[in-house]
Amino acid sequence: MALSMIAAQTYLEAAKAYFAFLIPEFAFTLSKETARDAVFYELQYRNPAQIISISYENLENYLQVIVFQLVNQQLPSYDDPRRTLHLNALNQALGALVGPANWKENQRHFRQFKPEGNVERQLLKSAKELRLCLTHFEKLQAP
Hints:
Strand content: 15-25%
Number of domains: 1
Distance between the termini: 44 Å
Order of helices and strands: HHEEEEEHHHH
Number of strands: 5
Structural class: alpha+beta
Largest sheet: 5 strands, antiparallel
Helix content: 25-40%
Shape: globular
Strand order of the largest sheet: 1-2-3-4-5
Radius of gyration: 15 Å
């Protein structure tokens, strides 16, 4: 199997474009941008209550989106499942809350994008999922 790597600038630009909705819709700011050689890339968006990390490990082809619920303006322990919320876990909880109409409405916010390659497709899929999760976040957090 051929290793498909993405350049740092390409990843960061695509991630910023796909996740741009975080700024106007959810009051986040881009707070951190990291590119460690061709190995690890990350964007962090922050608002007063949360940090969203969108990271990619190039050698492993591993994209991870995490919503950290801040504790006194600080990152929680990575091992705290109540405050370190992985997108896949949020998606599982979301399934019971939304129907096809919600997904269809969410899709229209991303129509303009034409992802190139596997990594950009992963980014776009994660952006769509995150936007829908954040739209229903209070319901997801209810006990």
